[in-house]
């Protein structure tokens, strides 16, 4: 028998059913609860642990607090051949972004490239979840978003005016699984800080700094400091520009208007996103592009290595490996997470996971 430190492995279908039942218990329709659950579990399957079932108690708190519209009328507010602006009507972010991504793919089939912005949405999980959807249609996907809490000051400042503002790009391969880059503009996403805190683990130096400029490694003291940007001032600039494109351009929250959904269960966040679909066929035959991608991937993977380096890795390899392993063996749920989910089940009067 596994000891208490060994994560429980839960089959994906069982976890989906549990998540869906939780959302149904707070008033979301059966069909929409199923959609959200599938997307959340897909995040866990690919190893994005800070954005999967870990977020369920938080989502439920915000729904109970009246911060989310359970019956949104998601629609195109503005539209042209190669663009659109989606108004999510404050619905669950997963539903809003699924709608926006499907619209971008549909438009890119005709226009070649489609840029769809989103306003009045909510937290929607990992960036790569939506950037990867166009891959199924032989398209390149690009996703940008404004994070749901400000944990980053301007370079050299102290006021929290920026978030982790992620970017994801997914490019298909042929025989190779392709490239999927998913990154925050901070050294670590805040979800990783929260998972460290839940598990009682410390953070490595370089993730956060306190307001005196000293390294902050205790995630329980995260409120005393701020996340650090990737690449110093360059990461700050990237976070700012992504926030403008995903937030300001769409009429969504940015800067001081961003609501900290970790601490606030009642306010509307007006979260902004962008999804771009690029139809490869417009540029060249898909088969030719995929062959070129396979060659490029192999050239990089097989290139000469520094002493002590075991292999050259490419963006998305870790998620691809996690997907194969977890689809077979189930999703690992550490004891603290499992306890919080079973506590939630008791509150909602639904069947617990274990």
Question: What does this protein look like?
Answer:
With 354 residues, the chain is of the alpha+beta class. It has a domain at 1-64 and 303-354: Hypothetical Oxidoreductase Yiak, Chain: A, domain 1 (Orthogonal Bundle), CATH 1.10.1530. It has 10 helices and 12 strands. It has helices spanning 12-25, 30-45, 56-64, 93-111, 127-131, 190-199, 233-246, 286-301, 317-329, 335-348; strands spanning 8-10, 75-80, 83-87, 113-121, 139-145, 167-171, 179-183, 208-210, 215-216, 225-227, 271-279, 331-333. The strands form 3 sheets. The chain has a 7-stranded mixed β-sheet with strand order 2-3-4-11-5-6-7, sandwiched between helices. Helix 1 (12-25) packs across helix 2. The longest helix has 19 residues, at 93-111. The protein is globular and about 55 Å long. The two termini are 15 Å apart. The model has no long low-confidence stretch (mean pLDDT 96).
Count of alpha and pi helical runs: 10
CATH class descriptor name of the domain at 1-64 and 303-354: Mainly Alpha
CATH topology of the domain at 1-64 and 303-354: Hypothetical Oxidoreductase Yiak, Chain: A, domain 1
Count all strands and give the number: 12
CATH superfamily of the domain at 1-64 and 303-354: Malate/L-lactate/L-sulpholactate dehydrogenase, four-helix barrel
Beta-strand residue percentage: 15-25%
Q: What is the terminal separation in angstroms? A: 15 Å
Structure class: alpha+beta
Largest sheet: 7 strands, mixed
Order the strands across the largest sheet as they lie in space. 2-3-4-11-5-6-7
Q: What is the CA-based Rg, rounded?
A: 20 Å
Low-confidence stretches: none
Task: Tell me the series of helices and strands, N- to C-terminal.
Answer: EHHHEEHEHEEEHEEEHEHHEH
Helix content: 25-40%
The shape is: globular
Mean pLDDT: 96
From the coordinates shown, what is the CATH architecture of the domain at 1-64 and 303-354?
Orthogonal Bundle
